[in-house]
Amino acid sequence: MKYEILYQDAFPLVKCDLQRGEKIKAESDAMVAMSDTLEVNGAMNGGIIGGLARRMFTGESFFFQTIDAVRGDGSVLLGHPAPGGIIDVELDGSYSLRVQKTGFLAATDSIQVDTTMQNLAQGLFSREGFFVVKISGRGTVFLSSYGAIHAINLADNEEYIVDNGHLVAWPDYMNYKIEKASNGWISSFMSGECLVCRFRGPGVVLIQTRNPASFRQWLGTTLNNS
User: Fold this and answer.
1) Which of 34, 62, 179, 221 has the greatest number of C-beta atoms within 10 Å?
2) In which band, very low, low, confident or very high, does the pLDDT at 122 lie, cut at 50, 70 and 90?
3) Which tens digits make up the pLDDT trace of 18-36?
């Protein structure tokens, strides 16, 4: 499968060129347009239990779209509802990705999309909750975000602090811990950050340049004052 991410500066689309017999899975309602040689169907990944877990715990759709080049070669355009970026990640099967809720957009058919539980501290205090999306297998994954996606590449034992509302994805071999943004609770609260995530390398952490919770708060304040 060949692909291209179009309009990366704003409101991007993924254009995937499928040869006859190839297929791709995507989030429900991700298909924007496609060749008439392709066919779109609803399908479950991981059975009923897997679909329920994704829907209840991570906000992902119960069903995926499966787009199949059944009648010949063709192309499909995929998009997502948020005003944000799209990034492609190649998985070689040696590790899985942990992805924020609603961060999965599409993947080649060999990729598995499940849910996984975080530890107690991460579940209670991160904005992701106890469950995040687990993406594994060998193939190409497309992730979406709110705002642009920025990659932070950490060397061995290098540490970096990320506001937990800006996380998009990180490899499963990288762990993070929740801690106060400042030395004291009062200072952390007054800074507006309160709790943050501390990652340690090696590995690549993907973050989004905008925070959905902050936008909802800003929007509510703006509407209330209008």
Assistant:
1) 34
2) very low
3) 999 999 999 988 999 999 9
| Residue in the structure block whose two tokens are 């979406």 | 144
Cα–Cα distances (Å) from 2 to 29, 34, 79, 109, in that order, read: 21, 15, 17, 14
- Residue 147 DSSP one-character state: B
Burial of 63 (C-beta count, 10 Å sphere; 0-12/13-18/19+): middle
Could you check whether the bond before residue 202 is cis, i.e. omega within 30 degrees of 0?
yes
pLDDT range class, residue 163, cuts 50, 70, 90: confident
C-alpha pair distances (Å), 191 with each of 101, 161, 181: 26, 15, 8
Name which of 200, 198, 97, 206 is nearest 146 in CA terms.
206
Q: Taking the CB of residue 220, how many other CB atoms lie within 10 A of it?
A: 10
Q: Find tokens 């190839």 and name the residue.
A: 22
CA 102 to chain centre: 6
Total residue length of the chain: 226
Q: How far is CA 5 from the centre of its chain?
A: 16
Residues 30, 65 contacting (CB under 8 angstroms):
yes
Q: What digits encode the pLDDT tens for the residues 1-12?
A: 999 999 987 789
pLDDT of residue 136: 95
Look at 26-30, 90-94, 191-195 and tell me which has the smallest mean pLDDT: 191-195
Please tell me the distance from the alpha carbon of residue 226 to that of residue 219, in angstroms, as a whole number: 11
- The pLDDT of residue 61 is 54
**Rg for the chain, CA atoms, rounded:** 18
